[in-house]
Amino acid sequence: MKVLFLTIGGEIVASSRTRVYQFLPHFEKAGVEASVIPYDCKETFSNIITPAFSGAGPLSTPLRKAASLLSNLLNFFLRLAQTARFISRLKGFDVIYVQKLALPLFLQDLIKRKNPALAFDFDDAVFVKDESGYKARFDGMIAAAKLVTVENDYTADYARRLNGSILQMTGPIDCGRYAPPTRTSS
Q: 2-168 sits in which CATH class?
């Protein structure tokens, strides 16, 4: 079996880490070929670029603004590239798993035409937003999916209004992979 994940972000993003990345070693052990395309890397760019300009001084504010603009521009172009990469790979997979992204309606239609084996996952009540048609896109993702995975009863109740195939999966933490640092006694 081959699964293509389009995650909301890289492993640094909590919901991507707990809903996708921590399961990758388990998929591999089970013989599932999993490929991940992180859609948005804003957090990654912010964590790399912004600290470089966090000092004090007369130029610190303009430099922080420039770093933020650079981060946003890099992320925009990366999102375009990741979208193209994702679309080009749709046909070769048994399951297409989109995490929490309210993709544009034309892109949802394209995904359904190229590979209808769509699963959609969300772990927060992000559907309460209704800015610039977000809710219509989000609801479209739920309705288009063959399976919707959600975090809790509240998100499951919402998803059931649009799709009958719901799997509730509370986000566990793989403590073997994400263990807190050990403390030495003083």
A: alpha beta
